[in-house]
Amino acid sequence: MRALCATDLSAASEATIENETCLRCLGRIGVRTVHLVTVVSGNVHPGMPGVDFEARRRRGLDRYREVIEAAGFGVETHVVRGTPYRRLNDIAETVHADLALVGSRGQSPLLNRVVGSTARNLARTTVVPLLVNRVERAADDPDVLREHLFRHVLFATDFSEHADRAFGAFSYLRHATEEATLVHVRSPKDDGPDGDVGPAERLAERASTLAGWGIETRTEVRRGDPAEEILAVEAEVTPSTVLVGSKGRSRIRRLLLGSVSEDIVARAAGNVFLVPPPRAT
User: Which residue segments constitute the domains of the chain, with CATH numbers given?
Assistant: First the structure.
């Protein structure tokens, strides 16, 4: 597997890249090559007085390369120009990445309503599964909040094709997963008949699959606002990562805020693994 790792050479990025436990977790799920990518703003030009951003960023990437190669991965580095989330998606498609990794301190609820961080913009538009690795917010030298990326996975499902696709990620995450919590939230519009199989039984089917892989699993059906209830479960069980599927990107969706997956990315206390629809061929 190939992983794209986005970095702006900040302390938050460094916490994600240089954490040995996080790197071992990536190795367990099958990552063998890491593409380190940093994006220089298109407004910065080499000829500007006192500016040598590209050279500085290459030096920073070379330092990260040494750390990642020492952990046993192959490494390629990329310094590109433009809008971060657009260029990161471009590189992901070019190198055929299997997943992307970005560190995030999170933002205040107000700021999330006004301006999107790179992590949130990627959540709206990502072309590959995206791991948002949460780091300490108010620290000069931050550390990651959940070192074991996939030890305990909280999987949220509405039983849609998007959720089923996210569940499929367990085919490789299971090599680093010991526990899983499966949750379905019934909203008021779901008050009609469940059909032949109710949500508890459908969760039990998925739990049986994980149990066959040796993963200790619990299930929970809740009622209320999906994002609020998923975040409430996260607060109760403290998983390493919340696993959710997204509906993908559209021109309209990129202008709107408030989908369940975007709310989870913006507000979750720990890591979020977001699985989008397959890339168009």
Answer: 2-134 (3.40.50.620), 152-271 (3.40.50.620)
